[in-house]
Amino acid sequence: MMAHSMDDRDSPDKGFDSGKYVRYTPEQVEALERVYAECPKPSSLRRQQLIRECPILCNIEPRQIKVWFQNRRCREKQRKESARLQTVNRKLSAMNKLLMEENDRLQKQVSHLVYENGFMKHRIHTASGTTTDNSCESVVVSGQQRQQQNPTHQHPQRDANNPAGLLSIAEETLAEFLCKATGTAVDWVQMIGMKPGPDSIGIVAVSRNCSGIAARACGLVSLEPMKVAEILKDRPSWFRDCRCIETLSVIPTGNGGTIELVNTQIYAPTTLAAARDFWTLRYSTSLEDGSYVVCERSLTPATGGPNGPLSSSFVRAKMLPSGFLIRPCDGGGSIIHIVDHVDLDVSSVPEVLRPLYESSKILAQKMTVAALRHVRQIAQETSGEVQYSGGRQPAVLRTFSQRLCRGFNDAVNGFADDGWSPMSSDGGEDITIMINSSSAKFAGSQYNSSFLPSFGSGVLCAKASMLLQNVPPLVLIRFLREHRAEWADYGVDAYSAASLRATPFAVPCVRTGGFPSNQVILPLAQTLEHEEFLEVVRLGGHAYSPEDMGLSRDMYLLQLCSGVDENVVGGCAQLVFAPIDESFADDAPLLPSGFRVIPLDQKTNPNDHQSANRTRDLASSLDGSTKPDSETNSRLVLTIAFQFTFDNHSRDNVATMARQYVRNVVGSIQRVALAITPRPGSMQLPTSPEALTLVRWITRSYSIHTGSELFGADSEACGGDILLKQLWNHSDAILCCSLKTNASPVFTFANQAGLDMLETTLVALQDIMLDKTLDDSGRKSLCSEFAKIMQQGYANLPAGICVSSMGRPVSYEQATVWKVVDDNESNHCLAFILVNWSFV
What we know:
Shape: globular
Oligomer: single chain
Largest sheet: 11 strands, mixed
Number of helices: 21
Structural class: alpha+beta
């Protein structure tokens, strides 16, 4: 059966007119669709071949075939765009519904606060004239009101074999959870930077003035409710600090729900705090409106219920009614409400670490937001919207990330039931050494059966924690990731990589300078919000001498970098890596090491004094004698853990090497902290006579050479203090460097913007050389204009790129260089002003 033209009677011998519509038969359409499925845009040769090979298309001109494929691609594009717009419309509709519900909740909260405020005013007005502090009384009254709204029910001890008693606890837990998820049982405050929208993570809020710490998140996902519940109940898959979940009892309820008695173990984030565990009742059920809910709370003597197992390695924490509510959306997908409310028993934590356990923001990032992100990630992978490189499935890449985090957490915590035991110290308490020779450990979830034969007799871990003040955590993690050669020893890396081969190297001596090597980062995968990167790092080395030839081969690391999103508030950042071989199999053994940075929410005390040390070991703060710094803007805890393999005859040598290596890494980090963090007072406006004189020379020289004023027409009449303030607070970077013919120029002064651009301080500025800051183009431009600068006094340089002290590229739109002369008209230095600079 042939294709027919709408009008072919006048020219039977002429064939089809390419400008007229062609009606294709079903057989012809089927043949063209088969080709389209293989190649949506066939070439001219392919279309001619199609006509030759398919007899039913022989009377159709190639041009008509081309037009058919063009129309087919256009219809496909329109179909995809229509589907995309429908999806966006559903998201906007669901988000609008969510925002309206959130608005109703906030209005109820406002009404409650207005009522409470009026009640307190009435009490204050009618109070008798006593010496009682009314503000304290109002707080007590407010607390009594909240206690009346959310009473704590006291129950007799309930037996685990009594389903009716457990169902009563479950129903109470459900009611309290729903009040937190959709009501006003908790005073929620939206987290900064978490704005709702169709493509955002959702609505995220933290608690204010409640028992323990709490976080709440609402979001949209394109998965059905039961699939979402299945994902969220598997807590170890998305909560990286969850060691294990053990369900000890499962009891079906008469309403179709399920009650579970669950023991959950949580890793400690640092080496100097104990891990936590929860003994909880988890209740899963469907609601009348079709929603599905999973709620959970701790079983205590106050709530009733059976007693759970205890472990000496864990501190029993308390989970207040928490869980997740999953509601189906019109047109598919789900709306998720997640609430996490816990009391982590801060009384058992050293004073310096308590902000880690008292921060609702940290809880939100590590648990609540992490759960929502994980569900959204799987939803995107299921729909095929996420593309990965390397030909690996998303589930495989997620497993790599989980194994890296789990292995690092195991090393940081060193549980005895995993086979870890402490090793005797060398007299210093800054580094902790632990060893693990348990074969059961290596047969666990993160190691395969080949781990023990390849890795010798056991694993040794050297770990430490330190407190850093005023150090930007993201800058620190980026430096550790991008400048490995500044802190790592290539010989130690080679020893770690040798554990993957049958003939490992001898234990190396730690060298201060390490081995010269170059680093190439090859991305594997990243999450939707780009807060986590999985990558392969290739380390190419070069030997110093013939005896080092064994170390000059390329090495590979599987690396996970997380928490580097600048918009995240209260989140921790970490860099975890493990050596791999060239084959990089899906079940490759991993021995992770790395760094974890957790910012602390500083609570200042006006009576505290400022510590003299910029960095200090946390162990020195455990006795409580060291108080928090009153003038410190921010603090963070840095945890370091490195794992190495050993044989029985080399254990002591490996321990010595590991201890010295970690100490060297700590020293490198302290130097980095000094470079990127101001010393006390160093970032303040300098007011010395030398600074006033230098500023006067800078502004006067600029005026003489360029014929214009640096700070405007009235700057010449200003006094030295005003000129200094204008230069110091100028938005463009102003820098001075030495002018010597027998030495490389180094920076001698910079204003606040210049110090921010170079990521350094006035003290460390003098260690930065000019030629190391400019790129090749900038150095060539400066050299070509240098004679002009010395003769005419100044020159304008084009836009370019320079590099900060941390290795970050900085762009600027224009640069002006002028010669600074002193009162005797002698050359003093060169001054630069970089206009509109920004980090690339």
